[in-house]
Design brief:
Layout: E1 29-30, E2 37-38, E3 61-63, E4 69-71, H1 75-92, H2 117-166, H3 170-180, E5 189-196, E6 206-213, E7 220-229, E8 232-242, H4 252-255, E9 264-268, E10 271-279, E11 290-299, E12 305-316, E13 322-324, E14 327-328, H5 335-343, H6 355-374, H7 380-387, H8 389-396, E15 401-402, E16 407-408, E17 418-423, E18 427-432, E19 437-441, E20 446-451, E21 459-464, E22 470-474, E23 479-483, E24 488-493
Antiparallel strand pairs: 1-2, 3-4, 5-6, 6-7, 7-8, 9-10, 10-11, 11-12, 12-13, 12-14, 15-24, 16-20, 17-18, 18-19, 19-20, 21-22, 22-23, 23-24
Helix pairs in contact: 2-3
Length: 495
């Protein structure tokens, strides 16, 4: 017969649909107790009121319309059939109960399930209750997990703070607190931190620290001040200083600072300061380039920085290390800068020269400036007089000397000032109206100075002598013989 619920063709004699489990109509039957005819879907006899298929009775029998005896399913058979079907459904997948699965013939009786429509209803209700319980349990577990995660995160944050608070290293506390407060996303390095002990509740413990970054565009240092609040530290960014075009290095190895001298807390005139220092060279600076070391005092109350910069060339010493031959750029007057000047002695990358070294350096500087002033064709006369002053003295005393005669690619005199000229196969010689003598080498195409007015007087005449040398008469009454090929001179006639 066809199932009235799903339309599936069930085998003959089936009490339930073997496709959806719905009870199948089997026609009118007789009550096994009183023998009265009852509808096939009855659970209780309408005549005697007894249950038609009581589990404790014998198997009920009914007569079909053709007169054949048909065995009614017992309670155990129905229960086993429902259990197997429910297990199969659960093994496949859970489907929420639908309203259209309940038959109109379902009984609302509180008695035991008899396997009919009421059985389907109770089964689906049970599945729904179980599903709801599972859902409630799942939501509760999720809330518990979230609560646990929140507590775990809070505990982690608190533990970071407590670990930092218990640490004896101010730099460790400083770095931990910046990280805990999401203040490390600028990529800077925590380089220095010092703890200042509080004196009372109104003046709690403080930690002042410095971070820095050698950014390609804008290198900077940042100063933070942490204030103790219970078991936590409250950080605050108080200073940002940009150092464009320079590098920053706060490592002790770069400073070559004496142990324990920097950074540290200092007290000057009753005020608390953080003292720190860093190498601050020009970018890509090396031997001979500008180098700099900055010594700093940070005032905890005013939040201002006082800096003393030592600036000078970078030089490599005999030990292979590079030092900065620095001198203070700022005045060292004032209490704070006097302190920094004293502390510079502990920063050994700053090389302080001895008196002898300073004197030699000053002489070298003056010489360089002098040479610069005497360079160029326009200064040829002055340079010759400077370089040959001592030699002219010896020449006047009768000695033969070798003269310094720098050569130039361009003319070193004004042709309008020339009074006389001599020439042989190798040289041209010119005497000007001021008493100076110049030469021109035809082979090298170079100009040079032969004589300039000085202690021997001015040149009053020039000629080539029998020895092939140039003879120069001076206003002092002397005649100087000058060997043009070897730049050697001697006095040949003293009157």
């Amino acid at each position: 017969m066809k199932c009235p619920k799903c339309g599936y063709e069930a085998p003959e004699g089936s009490a339930y649909c073997n496709h959806c489990g719905t009870a199948l109509p089997i026609g009118d039957t007789n009550c096994p107790w009183c023998g009265q005819n009852i509808p096939a879907s009855s659970v209780f006899c309408p005549s005697c009121g007894k249950k038609v298929n009581n589990d404790g009775s014998e198997a009920a029998a009914s007569v079909s319309a053709t007169g054949a005896t048909v065995a009614q399913p017992t309670y155990n058979e129905i229960h086993q059939h429902d259990s197997r079907r429910q297990a199969a459904e659960q093994a496949y997948s859970y489907q929420p109960p639908r309203a259209d699965k309940y038959d109109g013939d379902d009984d609302d009786s509180d008695d035991e399930d008899d396997g009919g429509g009421n059985s389907n209803f109770n089964r689906n209700l049970l599945i729904g209750v179980i599903a709801a319980a599972l859902l409630i349990g799942l939501l509760s577990a999720m809330r518990h997990c979230n609560s646990q995660e929140d507590r775990r995160m809070e505990a982690t944050a608190d533990s970071v703070a407590l670990v930092a608070a218990d640490s004896q290293d101010p730099l460790a506390i400083f770095n931990a607190e910046l990280s805990r407060n999401n203040m490390t996303n600028d990529g800077a390095i925590g380089a220095a931190a010092v703890k200042f002990g509080g004196t009372d509740p109104e003046n709690p413990d403080r930690i002042v620290g410095v971070t820095y970054k050698n950014d390609d565009d804008r290198p900077f240092i940042k100063i933070y001040q942490l204030t103790r609040s219970g078991s936590l530290w409250q950080p605050q960014l108080v200073q940002t200083k940009y150092l464009d075009g320079r590098t920053i290095n706060m490592a002790n190895s770069a400073l070559m600072a004496r142990e324990g001298t920097v950074p540290r807390a200092v007290r000057i005139d009753g005020k608390d300061y953080l003292y720190f220092a860093f190498v601050n060279n020009l970018r890509n600076a090396g031997e001979g380039n500008n180098g700099r070391v900055a010594l700093c005092l940070y005032d905890l109350d005013t939040k201002k920085i006082t800096t003393l910069n030592f600036d000078g060339p970078i030089k490599t010493r005999t030990d292979g290390r590079q030092y900065i031959y620095g001198k203070p750029l700022e005045s060292t007057s004032g209490t704070e800068r006097k302190f920094l000047r004293q502390e510079a002695d502990n920063i050994r990358v700053i090389y302080f020269q001895s008196e002898e070294e300073l004197k030699a350096e000053e002489e070298a500087r003056l010489k360089a400036e002098e040479e610069k002033a005497l360079a160029g064709e326009e200064n040829a006369d002055a340079k010759w007089s400077h370089d040959n002053a001592e030699k002219m003295d010896k020449l006047n005393e009768g000695e033969e000397v070798r003269m310094d005669a720098p050569q130039y690619n361009k003319p070193i005199f004004n042709i309008k000032d020339i009074a006389s000229k001599l020439e042989n196969d190798k040289y041209l010689v010119f005497a000007d109206k001021k008493g100076a003598v110049y030469g021109f080498n035809k082979d090298s195409r170079k100009y040079f100075v032969i004589y300039t007015p000085g202690a021997s007087g001015t040149a009053t005449g020039i000629s080539f002598g029998g020895d092939g040398n140039l003879h120069i008469k001076t206003s002092g009454g002397n005649t100087i013989s000058y060997d043009l090929a070897h730049d050697r001179a001697k006095t040949v006639d003293n009157k």
